Amino acid sequence: MLEDLTTAAPPASWPAAYPQGYAVVDVETTGLARDDRIISAAVYRLNARGEVEDHWYTMVNPERDPGPVWIHGLTSEMLEGAPLFPDIAEEFAARLADRVLVAHNAVFDWSMIAREYARAEREAPVHQRLCTIALSKELGLPLPNHKLESLAAHFGVVQQRAHHALDDARVLAEAFRPSLRAAVSKGVRLPLLECRPLKEWSDSAATPRIGRQSGGYPSGGYSSGGGYPSGSWRPSRKRPACPYPNPGRYEEGKALKQGMRVAFSGDTSVDRELLEDRAVEAGLHVATSLSRLTSLLVTNDPDSSTSKVVKAKQFGTPVIDEAAFGQLLRDVEPASEK
Questions:
Q1: In this structure, are residues 201 and 119 in contact, taking their beta carbons and an 8 Å threshold?
Q2: What is the rounded distance in angstroms from the CA atom of residue 175 to the CA atom of residue 321?
C-alpha cells in the first residue's frame, strides 16, 4: 500500500537549509535539439513548504514550424498570434526570480529556457534547479519508470491534458509537494544543481517561419517512426573529428590526455553542450555512445540504470563525476607525438 503523502501535514520542523521558494516549470517545444524553440510555458510558484502561490501560462510564437502537433496540440495557426519569446521574457523572469527551478527532467527545461534567453540577449534569473526524477530516486519511490505519469499516479494526482504545459506543471506541482515533505521527514538532502546561463547565442542555420507543418522529429524523441525525413530543415550539430589518437583509458589520479574518448550520461550542472565544447577545446573526443574504446564516463549519477552507466560497469570503464571532470579539464596533457 502506498504511503498517502498528498494530504499529510507538513513536518513541524522545516530545514533552514531548504530553499525559500520554488518555480515548477514545464515548457513545450518544437523538438529536442539545441536549435528547437519553446512554444508554450507554464510556471507554478510554490512557497518554501511546497504550497501553491499562483500560476502562469503563455503560448510563444517560435517563428518556425511547431513540430509534433500530434503531441502538444499547438498548430501554426494557434501560435501565429502568440507573443514572441522576447515579449514574455520579463514576465517569465519575474516568475523564476529568487526561486529554485523545479522540472521533470530539469536539464531539458533549463537548457531550452537558457537558450531562449540567450537568443533574446538576456539571462534567466535562475541559479539552481531541482529535477523531480533525481528527487524520486533520492526518496526511493517504488516507481515502474521515471515518467511524469508514474510519479503522478504514485501520489494520486490526476493528469487531465498530458503534454499541455499548464497541466503538466500543475501535475508536477501537486506531486512535488508530498515529495518535498517526504524529503524533510526522511532527512534527505535535496539534489540541487547549479544553473549557469548562456552568455551568447548564434543560430547554426536559418529556420523557416511558422506556416507549414513538418512530419519529422528526432529519433528517440516524440517520433514514432524514426528520424528526420530527407530534406528536413533542422540543422545537425556536427563536431570536427578529433585530430589525436586515442591513448587509452583514463587512470585514476593521473591527468587526462588529448585524444581520450569521453562520454557523458545524465544531468549536469553546466549545460551539457557547453561542457562538451570545453572537452573538445581541450583536445578530447566526445563520444555519443559508450564502447570498450571509451576512456572515461562522466556522470553525476553512477548508480543509475542508463545504458551508458550499465555498459561502463560491464566494460570496466572509469567513471567520475562532473566536478572531478571539470578539475581535470584544467590540465589536459598533450597528445603523444606520432
A1: yes
A2: 29
